[in-house]
Design brief:
Chain lengths: ~350, ~350
DNA sequence: CTGAAAGCGCTTACAG
DNA sequence: CTGAAAGCGCTTACAG
C-alpha cells in the first residue's frame, strides 16, 4: 500500500540508507546514484513517512501556544507565521486560548504536564509577572514571549520597540504641524500601553509641546473603548486636530466617531493607529499606522524556541535571545496638516 | 532522558503493552492494574511519544488546506477550528495560500505529489469547476470543500444554505416594513453570490415586491467595492430605506458611506450583512447579519475528510457526505423600521 | 561514496 | 485480563 524507502532502494539498486541520504540532501552521494534514486522516487511517487522520520531522528518537538483574546487580524497573521515555521521545524503546535492570571497559570501547568517542550506566550499573559516567574522557574520547559520586549533571562522574546515606534509616529504628526494631539491609551495589563504612551510623551517633550492631561484618555485596545475615548477627545474645547490611537481598532473607532460628528478625516482631523492589522486598510480612509511584522515575529519566536529546546536537549545551555524586529511607519490617507490654526 | 512506556511499565510492575492499553483507554484492564499504571505515569511525568504512536498505528494523515485571499476574521475562525480538529485526529495540516485557476490546479497537483491524503478547499477555488473536476479525477486523494453547497459525489462538502439564509434575512427586512431595498452582490467567481442573490430575489417576489434592477448593484465582497456600491445606492432617487450587503465587509462599508452622507444607521437607513465575522460586532452600530458557524464548519470538514481517508485506507468506499450546518439570524443594532414612507 | 545492523517508542496480532 | 514477539519506516553510528 504505502511506498517505502525500501521500495525505492530496490528499484534504484541501492540500500535504503542511500535513499535516506538523497532525501536529506546529503552531499556524499555520487551524482549518478542520486539521479537513479530520484528517478525511482518519482516513478513510485514516494514521499517519506513523517512519523517514522520524527521517531528515528528524535528531532520533533511540541510547543504550546497561549493566545488570549486577540483581534482576528492579529491572530490570523500570527497563526500563519507560527504554522509555517512549525512545519519547517517538525514541531507540533498545541493551541490554547487562555485569559490572564490565574487562568493562564493553570493552562501553563497543564501544558507542562502534558509534556510540551516549550510554550509561546502572547500579551497580555506575556506581560504578567506571575506568568513570567512561573515560566522562569520551570527549568524543564523553554519559553518565548511575543509582543513587548522584556529582558528576563531564561525567557526568550521577540518584539518591536514600542517606545520608538510611538515616538516616531508622534514626531510624524508633529511634523505635519499639529500641536494639540489627543492620545488614546491601551489596556493597563499590557506593557505596550506604557511604552507607547512614553514614546508619545517624549516626542512631545522633545518638540517643546506641553503635555495636557485632558488630551490623554483611557482605552483598552477595543473598538468600543475607542468610541468612548474619541467622543471625549472631540468634545474638548478646543478639540485636538489630531488623535493618535495606540492601536488600529481604536483608531478605526475614532474615524467612525469623527464621521458621526461630520468631521472629515484627514481634513478636519488626523487619525493615526498602531499595528497595521487588516482593519487599517479596510476602513476609509486607510489608516496611517505603525506596521508590526506579526507573521515574521511569530516565525522568529518559533524558530528561537525550537533552537533553545534543541540546545537543551543537546546538553547545552539555551541562549535565550531577545529579538527586536523593525517597525515601519505606514503613511496612508488618514493624516494631513491641520487646516485651522489652534490657539494655545 | 525521555520517559518511555517501558519505564512506566517497570515501575508499575506490568508490561509495556498494558501501559499502552491504559493510555488508550481500553476497558479490558483490571481496575487495580490501571491505577498502578496511572500512578507510575504521574510519578514519572510520562507522556506518550506522538511520532511513535503515529508510526505504529499507521493512523496519522496529512491534509492540505487551500485558502485564498480570505478576510482575516474568516481565516482565523477557520484555522482555529481546523487545527483543533486536526490535533484530535492525529492529522498534519499543510497550509497553502492559492488564488484561482490555474494557480490552484498547480498547487493541488504539487500537494498530491507531496503525498497528502486529502485536501480541504475554500472558496473561490472550491467553486471553480476546473478545480472540482481535477479533485474528482484524482482517485488517490480525498477532498472536501467548505462554503457553498455543491453536490458532486467524490467530493465532500460542508456548507450553510446561502439561499435560505439570504431569503430569511430579506424577509426580516421586509417584515420591518421596508419596500425599497438595495442589494450589494458578491464576486462573480463565488457560488454564494448567486445563491444569496436568488434568496433575496425570491423573498421579494413572495412578498409581492417588484424587483428593480437599479437596486441590485455589483460588488466583490471587498470593503472597497462596498463603498462604491453604497454610494451608487444612496444616490438613487428615491434612495432605498434598507441595504442588504451580501457580506459584512460590504455592510461595514455601507454604514461608513451612510455616515459620510450624514445618514444615521439604523434611523435613516437599515443595513444588514452576512457572515457574522468579527467586523460585525466591531463597527458601530453592530450589524444585523447572518451567522455562519465557520469554526464548526471547519471542524466538520476536517472530520469528514479524515473519515473518508480512513475508510479508503480500510478498503471501503468513502461516503463523501454533504453536510449542511444551520445559519442564524443575528439581530443587532443596524436595522429598524423605515421612518419615512416611500412612494412607489 | 555506500551498506548492514540496531534502534527510535509505540501498537497490532496472536497467545494464553 | 495480561504478555512476548514482531514490526511500523525511517535514521544514527559504525564500518569499510
Amino acid at each position: 500500500m504505502q511506498v517505502t524507502a525500501s521500495d525505492v532502494a530496490r528499484m534504484a539498486g541501492v540500500s535504503p540508507m542511500t535513499v535516506s541520504r538523497v532525501i536529506n540532501g546529503e552531499t556524499s552521494v555520487r551524482e549518478s546514484t542520486r539521479e537513479a534514486v530520484n528517478r525511482a522516487i518519482r516513478k513510485l511517487g514516494y514521499s517519506p513517512n513523517k512519523a517514522a522520520r520524527s521517531l528515528a531522528s528524535a528531532n520533533s518537538l511540541q510547543i504550546g501556544l497561549l493566545y488570549a483574546n486577540p483581534s482576528s487580524a492579529y491572530l490570523s497573521a500570527m497563526l500563519l507565521g507560527v504554522l509555517e515555521q512549525a512545519r519547517q521545524n517538525d514541531t507540533q503546535i498545541l493551541l490554547v486560548e487562555c485569559g490572564a492570571e490565574p487562568d493562564a497559570s493553570k493552562v501553563i501547568r497543564g501544558l507542562i504536564r502534558s509534556g510540551v517542550d516549550g510554550v509561546m506566550v502572547t500579551p497580555p499573559a506575556a506581560d504578567d509577572p506571575v506568568i513570567l516567574r512561573l515560566l522562569k522557574r520551570n527549568r524543564g520547559i523553554q519559553a518565548v514571549t511575543i509582543g513587548t520586549k522584556h529582558e528576563d533571562d531564561g525567557i526568550a522574546s521577540v518584539s518591536i520597540d514600542d517606545y520608538e515606534a510611538a515616538k516616531a509616529m508622534t514626531r510624524h504628526i508633529i511634523d505635519l504641524g499639529h500641536r494639540r494631539i489627543g492620545y488614546i491609551k491601551g489596556g493597563a495589563e499590557h506593557w505596550s500601553t506604557c511604552w507607547r504612551l512614553a514614546g508619545f510623551r517624549d516626542a512631545l517633550l522633545e518638540a517643546g509641546i506641553e503635555l495636557e492631561d485632558e488630551l490623554i484618555v483611557a482605552g483598552d485596545y477595543s473598538y468600543r473603548s475607542g468610541l468612548r475615548a474619541a467622543d471625549t477627545l472631540l468634545n474638548l474645547k478646543p478639540a485636538p486636530t489630531a488623535i493618535f490611537a495606540s492601536n488600529d481598532d481604536m483608531a478605526a473607532a475614532t474615524v467612525a466617531t469623527a464621521h458621526r460628528y461630520s468631521i472629515g478625516v484627514p481634513k478636519g482631523l488626523t487619525v493615526c493607529g498602531f499595528d497595521d492589522t487588516f482593519l487599517a486598510t479596510t476602513i476609509w480612509p486607510e489608516l496611517t499606522t505603525v506596521r508590526q511584522p506579526i507573521a515574521d515575529m511569530s516565525k522568529a519566536a518559533i524558530e528561537l524556541l525550537v533552537k533553545n529546546v534543541r540546545a537543551k536537549r543537546a546538553g547545552l545551555t539555551p541562549a535565550c535571545d531577545h529579538l527586536e524586529l523593525k517597525f515601519h511607519l505606514m503613511r496612508r490617507q488618514s493624516d494631513a496638516s491641520p487646516s485651522v490654526k489652534i490657539r494655545r
